[in-house]
Amino acid sequence: MADDELEAIRRQRMAELQAKHGDGSNDQQGQQEAKQRDSEMRNSILAQVLDQSARGRLSNLAMVKPEKAKAVENYLIQMARYGKLGGKITESGLIEILEKVSQQTEKTTKVTFNRRKVMDSDDEED
Q: Which of 57, 67, 84, 111 is placed for a possible disulfide with 79 were both Cys, Cβ 3.0 to 4.6 Å?
């Protein structure tokens, strides 16, 4: 009987490990599917909100500055969800939105010079 019990415990433990291992891959697969659904939803909303020229400009911006393009996309999606957009946005409208986002995220650069105070060698005579 001890062998039968031991075999049952082994099978149960093996089933638990397989289930645990399987859940990890399913979880990862679920995350990938969720990301894909999210990107498809974003693209469909942007397709409804932007005309072709504006979508082209936004995709060009995404190649150069992906973080700024993501901020503009989020802004457009949020406005679309709250119903603040009246029709499709043209390229000139997108440019205005880009200027607003640029002003909000504008970084100022400050340069400071630290001059070393070293004895000047011009005072010395050879």
A: 84
